[in-house]
Amino acid sequence: MGEQQHVKFPQEVIDEYAALGVDLVALFSAGHLGTRLGVQIVEASADRVVGTMPVEGNTQPYGLLHGGASAVLAETLGSVGSMLHGGSSKIAVGVDLNCTHHRGVRSGLVTGVATPVHQGRSTATYEIVISDEEGRRVCTARLTCLLRDVRPGDAANIPAT
After folding, report:
1. Is 31 left (phi over 0), alpha (psi -120 to 50) or beta?
2. Cβ neighbour number for residue 26 with a 10 Å cutoff
3. Of 12, 3, 77, whose CA–CA distance to 40 is shortest?
4. Residues labelled catalytic
5. SS3 of residue 114 by DSSP
6. 100 exposure class (CB count in 10 Å sphere: 0-12, 13-18, 19+)
7. How far is CA 89 from CA 17, 44, 67, 85, 86, in A?
8. Which of 75, 80, 84, 136 is at 20 to 30 A from 44, Cα to Cα?
9. Which helix (H) or strand (E) holds 153?
10. What is the dihedral of CA 151, 152, 158, 161, to 10 degrees?
11. Could you tell me if 93 and 82 are in contact, meaning their C-beta atoms sit under 8 angstroms apart?
């Protein structure tokens, strides 16, 4: 659960990060939290990021998908899109996340799709739509990330291959 082995990256992105010795699988994930929640990124480009998360294990006391789990999925997908938009010379840092929860889900897998609303030089904003297995909208989120220049100490925090 939470393994990122099937993610599809554009070849130019693979080449860019490979030249830096950066492990894309580790970089484009939700880290330990994403692993605990079972987040899997299955497609990633600056224009579209798709990821899934199981409902089981991510519910609140009423047995429904926890809104915080939806927020983690949304922020992960929007952050990945922002990182890919910014490129290897930028770090994406979330500064605003808004989630509207439309319907409850008790089981199965939810899928999130992040698409850009704005792709600028210093910020990127993504809309993330999370749907259930029947394609019904569960949550709509918007994430804005600050795109910060990589600083000398930042490279130590980027997973290496």
Report:
1. left
2. 13
3. 3
4. 75
5. strand
6. exposed
7. 10, 18, 33, 10, 7
8. 136
9. none
10. 140
11. no
pLDDT in tens, 47-106: 999 999 999 999 999 999 999 999 999 999 999 999 999 998 898 999 999 999 999 999
Contact between 161 and 21 under an 8 Å Cβ cutoff? The reply is yes
Q: How far is CA 83 from CA 29, 90, 121, in A?
A: 11, 7, 12
What DSSP assignment string belongs to 13-69? HHHHHHHTTB-HHHHSS-HHHHHHHT-EEEEEETTEEEEEEESTT-B-TTSSBPHHH
Instruction: Report the Cα–Cα distance between both ends of the chain, in Å, rounded.
Output: 21
For the entire predicted model, the pTM comes to 0.86
Q: Tens of pLDDT along 91-150?
A: 899 999 999 999 999 999 999 999 999 999 999 999 999 999 999 999 999 999 999 998
Using CA atoms, how far apart are residues 17 and 160, in angstroms rounded to an integer? 10
Token pair 């918007």: residue: 142
Residue 88's φ and ψ, nearest 5 degrees, are: -70, -10
Classify 108 in phi/psi space as left (phi over 0), alpha (psi -120 to 50) or beta.
left
Of 26, 110, 21, 126, the C-alpha closest to 73 is 110
